[in-house]
Amino acid sequence: MTTSTRELLLGYLMGSLDDADREIVEKQLSQDPSLQRKLEKLDVSLDVLRMDGYDYPPPDGLADEACDFVARQTESDAVSAKHSVGLPPAPVSRARGSSWSLSDLIVAGGVVAATALLFFPAIANSRFHARLATCRNNMRQVGVALTEYSQSNGGYFPRVPARGNLAVAGVYAPTLMENELITGQQFFLCPSSELAEQPGRFRIPTLAEMRSASGRQLARLQRLAGGSLGYNLGHFADGEYHGTRNQSRPYFALISDTPSVNLAGHQSANHGGSGQNFLLEDGSVRYLKNCRLGDCSDDNFFVSDRGFVEAGAHPDDSVLGHSASSPIPWAVPVRVQD
Fold first, then answer.
1. Which residue from 44, 97, 137, 310 has the fewest beta carbons nearer than 10 Å?
2. Above 50 in pLDDT, residue 100?
3. How far apart are the first and last CA of the chain?
4. Is 14 helix (H, G, I), strand (E, B) or coil?
């Protein structure tokens, strides 16, 4: 891999490329499987930079061990300081009316180090859970809007068209916005996602903008339309493509943190790859480490029973795609429900 190629792939993973370079990289990735594998290796190597998104509890007794270490280190350093050549035996004056000895400074430094050791992981963990909760609340708001839409449209949620400029999962968001069922585009963002960290790049396009766009501009609008959430792609039944009908199923997923095209199993990168929120059809939100409900359902929410990112193989096969995912990604004739 050349230096320039590595730099472009790193820039793509870190979200630092401009629109033109990003589109060039995405085109090359779609045409070159070996480049996709290189991207996956680089993505794994960047995991260390995402550690603030992981939720690992500190081991038992960490506080006691840290304090014991500071005490032992302070005693040892103080003894060494007394026998060091060139160190003054008397306390070092730091301010009028007060003095600090070398051992005092060592103790203070140890306390600061121990405090950082104890509290920085707690701060990172608190930040992770706060963002997770905000993401969950945003999904609930989207869920309310989807339910209201279904009540006014024969029991159906916004359907992803089979063909044309609007045939992507992200079309649900501008549909809800234009029906005035949700008050702001921020509800379509997970605060831990790349889009949320670069707000200047994100705006939900209108349906008219998507219909009239073409080429790179259309591809860009399709990627942005659904924000940083994934949406249900509908299903096939008797060879016909259908939208999703609201049946309030507690095991059927409608919305999720956006699936990734790079991580194994399409695991979402929104929360550091450690898991994702799912909005279920009954309005509840679940945080799952993988893409299955387990005891409630063994359905993989990110691929169909056929193993593809596509419309489900049957009415209970829930498949969620990222904003630019198409329900019918192959060029074959298909009957579409009116």
1. 97
2. yes
3. 49
4. helix
Torsion sign over Cα 260, 264, 270, 275 = positive
CB 91 within 8 A of CB 101: yes
Q: Which long-range contacts (CB under 8 A, 24 or more apart) does 51-56 make?
A: 51/124, 51/272, 52/124, 52/127, 52/128, 52/272, 53/128, 53/192, 53/271, 53/272, 53/273, 53/274, 54/128, 54/272, 54/274, 55/125, 55/128, 55/129, 55/274, 56/121
Show the beta-strand stretches assigned E in 166-252: 229-232, 235-237, 240-242
3-state helix, strand, coil in the chain (%, to 5): 45, 10, 45
Q: From CA 199, how far away is CA 191, in angstroms rounded?
A: 10
CA 195 to chain centre: 9
DSSP state of 93: E
What's the pTM?
0.64
User: In angstroms, rounded to a whole number, what is the distance separating the alpha carbons of residues 337 and 332?
Assistant: 16
Q: Please write the tens of the pLDDT for every residue from 319-330.
A: 999 999 999 976
Write down the H helix ranges in 83-214: 102-151, 172-178, 194-197, 207-212
CB count, 10 Å around CB of 73? Answer: 15
The DSSP line for 108-127 is: HHHHHHHHHHHHHHHHHHHH
